[in-house]
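The instructor's notes for this session suggest beginning with a concrete chain rather than abstract definitions. Hand out the sequence below and ask the class to guess, before any prediction is shown, which regions might be ordered.
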Amino acid sequence: MNTHGTMTTDNHAALWHGRFEEGPDAQAVEFETSIFVDERMALDDIKGSIAHAKMLGAAKIISAEEADQIVKGLESIKADLESGSLKIDYSAEDIHSFIEATLTDRIGEAGKKVHTGRSRNDQVALDERLYLLRTIPELQNTILTLIDALSQIAEQNKNTLMPGFTHMQHAQPVTLAHHVCAWSWMLVRDWQRLEDSLKRMNLSPIGAGALAGSGLPLNRKYEAELLGFAGVTQNSLDTVSDRDYILETASNLSMIQMHLSRFCEEVVLWSTVEFGFIDLSEKWSTGSSIMPQKKNPDFAELIRGRTGKVYGNQFALMTMMKGLPLAYDRDMQEDKEPLFDAIDTVLSCVKVFTYMISTAKWNKEKMAEGCKGGYLNATDVADYLVRKGMPFRTAHGVSARAVRIAIEKNCELEQLSMEEWKSCSELIEDDIYSLITPEACVEVRKVDGGPAAEKVAEQIAELKKFVKNVK
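After discussion, reveal the predicted structure:
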């Protein structure tokens, strides 16, 4: 900055300063700078610029010597950033400006040729895609770790009875293994959605320019190959105005966080005295500043609470894009902060949930006790009659009558006398008592995906196979 608070026109001036006789006001610079946010893409920007310089050299747009100078200069910047010997200059407008200016400082005039044939519009789209292509797999790996942890819990609890719920009312008996497998399959779909999104973002935008490509003989496909992309984007106008890859990522992150929030809601409920199903490790619980006896599931609550941030980031991105005409508009600079925050939040939440659930203890006796009361075996009474030839709707009514008798007597269905059973249906015999225990109700459900131990074992095997195959 000069003494009047405006930007000077040295190598570290804004990339666009040539059009203006005087630089922007200091407050204007502070308002529009993005380097505090986009600095995390520094290595992605360098990677893209190295490939761009190689392409420019191969296409003879710049000399081979200049391309080599640029590449070596960029590699030295990368090494110094990684070692910490080079600090980012936060007076630069953005990370692209900082790297280009630093390059020019180091190698002179050749550094000014690195931006040949490109715009910051296609450059930032490239940086964002490169960033996501390396960050999303990291998130996928944390999801796989969680699936693996849940599979281990399921493996150890194939016969651990617990009540299943609908409307938060006792519904039918299941097992803890069956329940955590349900969580796992949600996470499998989360992983798959991320994997599917990688295919769409794995196209190089560089060469689209500001909006209309370039009159220079750029070889977009060669540059894409250097960067490891599957191909190039099809339309330059669409390329620089597209943020679908960010919006899709934000949507996927919201879905993951929603699943974590649902898991945590159950953990919070299960850790109450009323449920008592789970005992969280003291390492993943907190106490109260006033009530000495408290052991709070704060980490589950925090994960649940941070879901609002992730949803908010998605909504902010959708709102930012909703009214923008083609092509690039400066509004789109605001895409990075919500994206990065959503990624950071979800990544940390997946990791914390994994630690928390892996170190928890399960109260098997309390869970089995939860299968008593609420007449969870009423459907099995109806199924018993169906197997004897009674239409299900009729059987449903018979079972309901039995439940009414049990309610009036304040007892369980299995405590009804044979005379009381016969008053409901003559088809009922003594064998009903052995067929409506919680264990029998679970084990009879041997349909694919059901809670019977052998079917849950199949699910666990499939989950382990999934994790092994995609790692």
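Then share the key points. Strands lie at 161-166, 169-175, 203-204, 231-232, 278-279, 361-362. The two ends are 50 Å apart (CA to CA).
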